[in-house]
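Lecture notes, structural biology module. Today: joint structure prediction for complexes of two components.
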Amino acid sequence: MNFNNIEVTEDYGKQSSKADIYEPKFAINNNTKKIYVTAKEGNFLNKDEILLNENVRFESNDFSIETENVIFDRNKQTAKSKTRSLFKSKNTTISSNGFNIYDNGNKITFYGNSIIILK
Amino acid sequence: MKFLIKLIILFLFTTNLISREIGETEITTEDGIEVYQDQKYYLLKKNVKIDSDNFNLNADNVKIIFDKNLYDIIELDASGNVVFDSSVYNVRGSGEFLNFKIKFEELTITGFKSELFTDDFEMYSDGSIKIGNINGNFIIKGANSSLVNESIFIKAEFIDGFFDTIDGQKQISSLIVEDKHISYVKNTSSEMYAKKINFDNSSSLIELKENVTIIRGGEKITGDYGTLDTKNNSYKIKSDAKTKVKAIIQNNE
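The predicted structure, tokenised, for the full assembly:
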């Protein structure tokens, strides 16, 4: 996951809540794949971190992850969630208490009590 | 009342979020999963349970190596309090570590008090037990290694053999038994001691080398080399130039 290549499209002021950005769309590139990230809204926590809220979705050609809250860290180049998450790829479903994507998207850690279903 | 209904709905939703159906494999962990996509493996951490139609496993931790996708498993390494049961291979066992090469249908259990059971044989070792379902090879090595079934008991630090499956039953087709101290084999008619004991079912011959003792009925014969024909139940013992064949025949009257 190379955050130097993050493409962000933001829709400022669309709604009158406390969110900094609405319906943000990200495109995260590494050498082999592109991961699209969408959410209902987001807040800048500091210069490095963005909190994405509600219907957060990661999607690549290989997998998708759905959850409610994710923090991007531009400096550490990680995407972390501590909310219930659902990972889906071909013939595989993983349910966990959050996740951490790091090492350019190569490594994903799923937290806590986790269930994998393999078809 | 509304609170109770909400609680029941919440419970049903959280417990049935995803669950296994027939033909699927369910894996649960207490401390998460680490997926290494480029390296093609994932780690299952703490109190891992694997449940499928024909394979079940419990272990402290498990590493799964996959081919292209996560479900495409080619090898499994389980560690800590491993207990497994494979109905498709008719094998179950336990030990400290388990390596399972799925493509080659090859299981290796290592560590203290390793055990492996088939329908016909029991294998024990404090070292390792390896069994290949495709080629029929088994190797038991290390301290307290033994192989047991209804008609044979083998105890040695190295037991290497092949199974044949005849009429659905596993039978030993060949065997190499070695122990730097002494190997022990007991069948329905005899007890045998030697440093090396070989068996070939095609020739029905048991060959014994070094520090040989055969005990049968009231006879105890010692020497340096011996053969026992299981077909006609006869045996021969030789000695080298330094020692002599010694026979003790008990008087049972």
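Point to remember: Chain B is about 5% helix and 60% strand.
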